[in-house]
Design goal:
By secondary structure, this protein is an alpha/beta fold. The chain folds into three domains: about 160 residues, 3-Layer(aba) Sandwich (Rossmann fold); about 110 residues, Helicase, Ruva Protein, domain 3; about 50 residues, Arc Repressor Mutant, subunit A (Orthogonal Bundle). Helices cover about 50% and strands about 10% of the residues. The protein is built from 16 helices and eleven strands. A hairpin with an 8-residue loop joins strand 6 and strand 7. The structure holds adenosine-5'-triphosphate and magnesium ion. The site of adenosine-5'-triphosphate (ATP) has 15 residues, from helix 2 and helix 10.
């Protein structure tokens, strides 16, 4: 394992060698790749390998409205805007001597892109509401799952900024284009979650073989979620294909690359309760497919299902069930009251 990166793929090994080479320089690194391919993992590895003494500071540019992003990035002085009651440092100042990781850079507004370009060129930053330059020594690592060249063509990303950012480009391949990594990652996450949940289980070879044919649109994160789910819910000593989420089995069967049919993979012996939990986890592991999702409802379903499971495991003892869920007994009772109301 190299810096927490589990891989046997030659494409990924080349990437590891490349980041090892460029990390000690202060060259800006642009990391691209589909969701869940390991962009943040690579960014953190670059920081560790850089030997820079300052902190690793991350910021997701897509998650924050433009004005707030601006003051988060650059800081602000007292009185710069309503609510600015004190002067505050931004992420650039906090990352001084270290690394600033700007995630989802493709979603930054055109105006802020111009500001970022100026900072990169001048190596100094001005807080919002201030005209004083502060010298900063920050290594920038940026990531996106967008094609920035296409964004430039569409007029949503500045070409001059792209050339400043694209000094070293790390392009992470999707998991389906490095299938040789699936078995090793599978084993890695399996061991990790067995340790985390203190379970001693075995992994059937068919389980790994079916997953190796699956297309993982959510990449390594999806694989990780699947392994967490199976380790958590496995009832016997052996994790088998029957523990896989239904949508994985269906997709693999539908791809027709499998030499086993869905009927052969399933025992069909699930109780309605198990089926419920199964469906629920399918929803969770498929959560990046936002089509038709109702977050509120999904979270309520998850809560309800876990409460029922905890009560079941505790033979109806509320104190014990609350302990399983790591919540107060009174909180559990509140939640049960609400569930009863909903059911009425
Ligand atoms: N090669 C790998 N070895 C071990 N763990 C990995 C590997 N690649 C990814 N992971 C794990 O998978 C999860 C997703 O990775 P990460 O958050 O870095 O992806 P990302 O590309 O930033 O995703 P997103 O675009 O959704 O933000 C993390 O928990 C990460 O530790
Ligand atoms: Mg990320």
């Amino acid at each position: 394992m190299f810096e927490g990166i589990v891989t046997v793929s030659s494409k990924m090994k080349k990437i590891c060698q490349m980041i090892e080479r460029v990390a000690p320089s202060d060259a800006t690194v642009l990391i691209t790749g589909e969701s869940g391919t390991g962009k943040e993992l690579i960014a953190r590895a670059i920081h560790r390998l850089s030997g820079r003494r300052g902190a690793f500071i991350g910021l997701n540019c897509a998650a924050i409205p433009e004005d707030i992003l601006e003051s988060e990035l650059f800081g602000y002085v007292k009185g710069a805007f309503t609510g600015a009651t004190t002067t505050r440092e931004g992420k650039f100042q906090s990352a001084h001597g270290g690394t600033l990781f700007l995630d989802e850079i493709g979603d930054m507004s055109y105006r802020l892109q111009a500001k970022l370009l100026r900072i990169i060129q001048e190596k100094s930053v001005q807080k919002v509401g201030s005209s004083t330059d502060e010298k900063i020594d920050v290594r920038l690592v940026v990531a996106t799952n967008k094609n920035l060249h296409l964004e430039v063509k569409n007029g949503t990303f500045r070409e001059d900024l792209l050339y400043r950012l694209d000094v070293v480009h790390v392009e992470l391949p999707p998991l389906r284009e490095r299938r040789e990594d699936i078995p090793v990652l599978c084993r890695h996450f399996f061991d990790k979650f067995c340790r985390k949940y203190s379970r001693s289980l075995k992994l059937s070879p068919e389980f790994v073989s079916v997953l190796s044919r699956y297309d993982f649109r959510g990449n390594v994160r999806e694989l990780q979620n699947i392994l967490e789910r199976v380790v958590l819910l496995a009832e016997g000593d052996m994790v088998t294909v029957n523990d896989l989420p239904r949508h994985v089995l269906e997709t693999v069967a539908a791809q027709n690359v499998a030499d086993i049919t869905l009927e052969e993979m399933e025992t069909g012996d699930m109780t309605p309760e198990e089926q419920n939990v199964n469906d629920l986890f399918n929803k969770i592991t498929g959560v990046w497919e936002l089509d038709g999702i109702d977050l509120q409802r999904l979270l309520q379903d998850i809560e309800k299902e876990l409460i029922l499971r905890a009560l079941n495991k505790a033979n109806g003892n509320k104190s014990l069930a609350a302990q399983f869920l790591n919540i107060n007994r009174t909180t559990l009772i509140e939640k049960l009251k609400r569930l009863c109301k909903e059911a009425a």
